[in-house]
Every structure is written in C-alpha cells, then in structure tokens.
Amino acid sequence: MTVISAQNLNLTFQTNDGPVHALSDVGLEIGKGDFVSFIGPSGCGKTTFLRCVAALETPTSGTLTVNGLSPDEARKSRAYGYVFQHAGLYPWRTIGANIRLPLEIMGYAKSDMAGRVEKVLKLVDLEGFENKYPWQLSGGMQQRASIARALAFDADLLLMDEPFGALDEIVRDHLNEQLLKLWDQTGKTIAFVTHSIPEAVYLSTKIVVMSPRPGRITDVIESDLPRERPLDIRETPEFLALAHRVREGLRAGHSYE
User: Fold this and answer.
1) What count of other Cβ atoms lies within 10 Å of the Cβ of residue 42?
2) Are 182 and 123 in contact (CB under 8 A)?
3) Contact yes or no for 211/218 (Cβ under 8 A)
4) 12 near 59, Cβ under 8 Å?
5) pTM score, whole prediction
6) Scanning 46, 51, 107, 155, which has the fewest C-beta atoms within 10 Å of its C-beta?
7) Separation of alpha carbons 73 and 55, rounded Å
8) HSE on the CB side for 141, CA within 13 Å?
9) How far apart are CA 140 and CA 194, in angstroms?
C-alpha cells in the first residue's frame, strides 16, 4: 500500500529577490511500513518536501497524495504526527500535559487521553516522567517526549524533521536505537530528514538522496540490511557499501551546480 505518492512535484517560492526553486520534478513512492530517510545539503528541499506532505506548503505543480488523499485532507483526517527539529515543549506544562495537548485540541475524552499518554510514555521509555517539566529533562529526553506527543493520537505516518541533529553523538546513537525499536513495535511509516550519512543508513529501509537547490532526487537507495540492527552493524562491509553509495550520490548531486 502506498502512503505517500509524489509525481512531477515542483515548488517555487516568490521572494523580493526573485523566484526560489525549492523542489524540481520530484517523484517518489513511500509504502506502508517503510522507514525513509531524506539526505542532502542544507537548502536542498528535504524539509520543504515534508512540509508539503503536512500541508504546510503548497506545491506549485505536480501531484502529491497521502493515503490517497490530498495533503490538506490527510491533515484533517489526522493521518500523521510531526516531530520538529526542536522539541517545542511548552515550559509551563508538564510532560504529560504537553503530550495531551493535541488530544485536547482534537476533543478526546479525558479517560481516553490518560490511557494514550500512559501508552506513549512507555513506548519512548519515559514512564514516571509525566509530572516533570521540560526543564527538568535532558535534551534527549525532551525529544523523546516530542516523539510521544506525535504518537499520542496514533497516526500511521510519522514525519520527523532532523529530530536528533542538535544532540551529542552518544545520545543520538541511543535515540537511533530506540527509534528503530519503536518503529518495529508500532509498524508505522516514517519519513525522516537528516544530514548524517551513518544515521540515514542505520535507520532506513530506503534512502532518498537530494541535490542542492533546486531540490532534485538524485538516487533512491533500497537498504538490504536486516531489520534488527545493533549499532556495531555500522562497521560491517554491507553498511559501509551503502554509506559509500549515499556519499557518491551526494557528490553527483553537487555536479548540478
């Protein structure tokens, strides 16, 4: 089943300095249960594509569907959760209250909200932290709370815009492991933006390599790594071969400049 389908997708922003071509002729299919990473240089359209999926930007031309619906229809049907680069937790609300926020906006019953918060806190290994405030948690824990908030209404699609980019390498490795476990447990489809080649290769079933602006897809790499991936898989010949192909794809993309 296709979750995200893009065909001949283009997006041009009109600015005072002239048009900015953010996406150019993007075509992509993402299937149910895929973990797809988008990698490329800054400004290549990775986040812009995610924002189009989330109906936060409107393509200039081409077609884009989410579960067979337009992005705006998918948003109204609560088809996805969105995890931003920064946790974006409200400091005056507890962790539990931050996670409840989208459920409150959507009008869920209080009894239902309590069960959902408990479930997602367990999924991200934050049991016992419901009554803490964001400032009492580390950066990595805050990002896990942000992921829990995106999971609270149980959308099948999770959009993640470089959620671990600001974290140190040790914390990032740990959260990569946890995210793979969460993906395996929930069976969700994940679209994940990153600047890290090892992160993209470690996490993904499919890696989308993008060129500098205007954002084009230069390669779509299917991973043949096993579903269970300990961190030391990054030292195997298979992993290094995939990483090399991603690196070559990024270099090829720069040849457009």
Assistant:
1) 9
2) yes
3) yes
4) no
5) 0.92
6) 107
7) 9
8) 17
9) 16
- Reduced to 3 states (helix: H, G, I; strand: E, B; else coil), residue 14 is strand
In whole angstroms, what is the distance from residue 180 CA to residue 170 CA?
16
Q: For residue 104, which of 93, 183, 236 has the smallest C-alpha distance?
A: 93
Q: Are 154 and 116 in contact (CB under 8 A)?
A: yes
Between 111 and 252, name the one with better pLDDT. 111
Each domain of the chain, given as residue ranges in start order, spans 2-79+156-254, 87-154
**Identity (one letter) of the amino acid at 143?**
Q
11-50 per-position pLDDT tens digit: 998 888 888 889 999 999 999 999 999 999 888 889 999 9
**Residue 240, Ramachandran bin (φ over 0: left; ψ between -120 and 50: alpha; else beta):** alpha
Tokens (6 digits) for 226: 């096993």
SS3 at position 145: helix
Q: How far is CA 47 from the centre of its chain?
A: 9
Helix extents (H) in the chain = 46-53, 71-76, 95-106, 110-123, 139-151, 169-186, 197-203, 237-254
